[in-house]
Fold this sequence. Notes:
Layout: E1 3-4, E2 8-10, H1 18-28, H2 33-40, H3 44-58, H4 63-72, E3 76-78, H5 79-90
Antiparallel strand pairs: 1-2, 2-3
Amino acid sequence: MNLVGNDIIYKPGQNLTEIEGRVLYRLAEGETPTKIKQAIKCDSPSLRDIEIKLMRKLGAKTKTHIVSRGFTLNLLLSRSICLMLALILIYPANNSKDWTRLARSSRTARTTRIRTRKDS
């Protein structure tokens, strides 16, 4: 069950149940606890139990950390990143028809070797 929203895409994994996946997805979308409870048809203690299970399964400490771990574990994807990656794959760099990778300049400064008398 993939969930696709305005900003987030959820992919199942990490042995999450369907309900846990929905809660993770809705937390990532920024929904309030009240809206999440209405969407999954549960009460406050049940939602808290689901959040605790998510924390345990994802190794998270807070609700915010649950969402962060969701991205880290590739359960959550940003739609804008997915679009950008798709466009990169479609169009070759520099409008060339060559799909080979272009060399990039290094972020580190180049070192030059100074000749000394010993080198000669």
